[in-house]
Design goal:
The protein is of the alpha+beta class. A 3-stranded antiparallel β-sheet has the order 1-2-3.
Length: 71
């Protein structure tokens, strides 16, 4: 159901809340123009994935952001 709609193969994040453990993310998103869904993830795991795999999408969503130096 997340692959068919006005914009195919796209989900639209609508909001996020953080769990009591300060690591669990609850991500609410719209799918197929008729559903509201909930996904969850670890904040740390998501940030680790972005650090490792986040540059694979150059050209699809634009160039990757430069890391912020922590001076």
């Amino acid at each position: 159901y997340e692959t068919v709609g006005d914009v195919p193969n796209v989900v639209f994040p609508c909001g996020v809340t953080v769990g009591d453990d300060d690591d669990t993310l609850y991500i609410y998103y719209g799918a197929a123009d008729m559903s509201i869904c909930l996904a969850n993830s670890s904040k740390r795991a998501l940030l680790d994935w972005l650090d490792y795999d986040g540059t694979d999408f150059i050209g699809e969503a634009g160039p990757p952001a430069e890391p912020i130096s922590q001076a």
